[in-house]
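Work package 3, deliverable 3.1, input record:
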Amino acid sequence: MKILSNTDEELELLVELPRFIVWFMLGPIGAFGALFTLALLIGGEVLNGLVTGAIIATMVTVGRYFLTQRTRLRLDAVENKVRMLRTSMFDARKYEFPLEHLEGAEVQQSLSRGDGSSTRRATSGVQLVFTSTRPATRVALSGWSVSGGGAGMLADAINDWLRAWHERQPSSAGVATPGTYRQ
Amino acid sequence: MNVLRETGEILELEHVPVPWIIGLGAVVMVLAIGLIRALVEGSVEGILISLVLLAALSWIMLKWVVRRLRVVADRGADTLRIIAQTPLGEGSASYPLSALLRAEVETRHDRNNSTPEQALVLVMGDASPPSRVRLDPFRPDTADLLQACARINAWLGAGAASSQGSPTTPEESRHENSQQH
């Protein structure tokens, strides 16, 4: 999760898992799976080796598909557009919405109980709030959520940029920002 | 939802839940590999467990997940067709396009766990109050729904504007039409 550009004209963000996390999650499965498969094949257990290899390859490929999905978000004040590009291993999808429909960004938190312990760990994801519908529609920027302050930092950056953009508009009086009471 | 075709006469959108097909397809593949292994080894217990799991998951996938939903609006024929295709069969519904007022993204909540679920709704003006046709694509991306909604409304508005010469929202155009009549 990082901010690529933050100027009066545009705010550009990239939402993706860092490469080292993807390697950290998939690397050991792939490496140990390959070694185990090789050991089975060398030991003469051809069927077991092929089955294990196929299962490991499927797990790594599907894991890579989901973990390497990325979203590039661009708020464009020149053309008044919200542009979103979602890319994965197999496809890329472009979205375009009017900037005035974007109310702001929110952080959605979920609590998970990790490793059977009693402590709960919060993970967060960023959602865009579009007010072109009633009730407002929330669009998640990523399919996964992470712990730490990255999601909050992105949401703050989006809301700060939108607030500044609204203030620069000729008829900015009375524009509410997320979390403020609107009469 | 992807736009397959967009001309002045025809708008065609489709939804295929690719991430779900990939995710569940991988599980089916692993089960199939397990079944092959059980068959080769002659393990009756393994064959039975693999077969039951494979049959159940395959049926769920074929009935609900591997489902292509298409919305085809044809201005020339004045039809709006909603076609749902699965490997098990095809179902379709047809409405007069002239009755379509607008598209909306509607949020409703799951009865069991109150999870918000967004869907694309077509508001039809063939009854009073207008009826709402809720499309049911499998686990759509909310951004897809917003985009599809905007495309349908823009296409309706463009058609109404070209016939009337006054670009407005689809609903306003139709309201003006009804007042003129």
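Residues 176 and 182 of chain A are 6 Å apart (CA to CA).
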